[in-house]
Amino acid sequence: MRLSRNASIAALSAASLVALGTTAMAAAPSHGGDHHRTAPLDHVYVIMLENHSQSSVIGDPNAPFMTHLAKKYAMANRYYGVTHPSMPNYIASIAGDNFGIQDDNDQNVVNLDRPNLVDQLEKKHVSWGAYMDTLPADKLARFGPTLSDGTVIQLYAKKHNPFVLFDDIKNSPRRMSHVRDYSALKQDLNSRHAPQFVWISPNQCHDMHGGVTTAVPGHPETPCPYGSTKDDPNDAALKQKADAFVKNAVNTIMSSRSWTRNSAIVIVTDENDYTGNEETGGWESAAGCCDSPYVQAADPRISPDWPGGTYGGGLIPAIIVRDGLHHVVDHTAYNHYSLLTTIEDNWGLGHIGHAGDTAGGVVPMWKSFGVNRHR
Q1: Is 153 helix (H, G, I), strand (E, B) or coil?
Q2: CA 254 to CA 312: how far, in whole Å?
Q3: CB 126 within 8 Å of CB 176
Q4: DSSP class of residue 51?
Q5: CB-CB contact of 272 with 279 (8 Å)
Q6: Interacting residues of 313 by C-beta distance below 8 A, sequence separation 6+
Q7: C-alpha span between 200 and 268 (Å, rounded)
Q8: Cβ proximity of 278 and 55 under 8 Å
């Protein structure tokens, strides 16, 4: 599935590839000069979890730390996934569009030749890092790890790593050096060149997705079978593991030398879990806002019963952690395009895709971040 961008963007991408190298994260540019001094936020950290509704996480006894963060700091309580299923939400989060993709079964044939957040960040010299839990040595592998007997375990999933779905990232050794295993996060955040924008994707036992039925040596979080309903013991176990991962990640970030009063952590899921308890109607799990895609009736990728219309990703948890935030609840309608817009506006990157489309309801999340800034 190859989608072409316009000629001028392609030329820019080609020019950027001339500078290929194997520079490690420690050699990444530091705080972006004037952009760092004028940006409301010094660092933005995004932790993307999986497949759970707001009501499935916030207040659930199996997710006490995430509930604590939501109540202590800030929660955007009308935040939706862009669509279903997983992969188009990850793509939309860093490109402002799902490009018509409504499945995540073809992750190994998605080769997006489109503008993305990395293009924008690097153009403005804003440093970045993407940290994948249990990243295989072959960063383009669909799943991993591979056991000694050749069995491939679906602990890491490529569809949850949007960076390797874009041509001008995956084909650049220099850019791919910024896609790192989660184990490198602590060291990188305590280096002199800590990235300003950080993305974290936990593995499928840590992100509430599940589906791993084999115990993997060195991974005490395995096995983690799917949990199908809110009262399923497997689902409870997935939430407990995700909550522990988030606690570790948040503590790692907030105790690092990169954490400042003007830094922020965003914790979201990609889409809801089809429980739909937050809204009414037969297709409440497809509720959305802010330029979610319109999908024709009876689309075979969705259901023969789909009536047609906006196909959003349902109401999901969105927690913002930042020093100075106290018990903030933001009732504005947002989705992943809104978060991308906020990141772009923070560093003056401009907008791509649906980001910044105020006419479509896509607005930055400054209220959730406690930033008094007018566009």
Answers
A1: strand
A2: 33
A3: no
A4: S
A5: no
A6: 80, 81, 82, 83, 84, 89, 270, 271, 272, 286, 288, 292, 335
A7: 11
A8: yes
Q: Render each residue's pLDDT in the chain as its tens digit; 375 residues.
A: 544 444 333 333 333 333 333 333 333 333 333 344 478 999 999 999 999 999 999 999 999 999 999 999 999 999 999 999 999 999 999 999 999 999 998 777 888 999 999 999 999 999 999 999 999 999 999 999 999 999 999 999 999 999 999 999 999 999 999 999 999 999 999 999 999 999 999 999 999 999 999 999 999 999 999 997 777 999 999 999 999 999 999 999 999 999 999 999 999 999 998 765 444 445 779 999 999 999 999 999 898 999 999 999 999 999 999 999 999 999 999 999 999 999 999 999 999 999 999 999 999 999 999 998 754
Contacts of 292 (CB under 8 A, 6+ apart): 80, 82, 83, 310, 311, 312, 313, 335
Strand partners, 215: none
Tallying the residues shown for the chain, one arrives at 375
Dihedrals phi, psi of 329, to nearest 5 degrees = -125, 115
DSSP secondary structure, 276-294, as one string = -TTS-STTGGG---TTPPE
- Tell me if residue 47 falls in helix, strand or coil: strand
User: What is the CB-side half-sphere exposure of residue 138 using CA atoms within 13 A?
Assistant: 10
Enclosing H/E stretch for 79 = strand 79-80
Burial class (CB in 10 A: 0-12, 13-18, 19+), 233: exposed
Measured on CA atoms in the order 56, 300, 156, 112, is the torsion positive or negative?
negative
pTM of the predicted model as reported, rounded to 2 decimal places: 0.89
Question: Residue 249: how many CB atoms within 10 A of its CB?
Answer: 23
* Full set of structural domains in the chain with CATH: 2-369 (3.40.720.10)
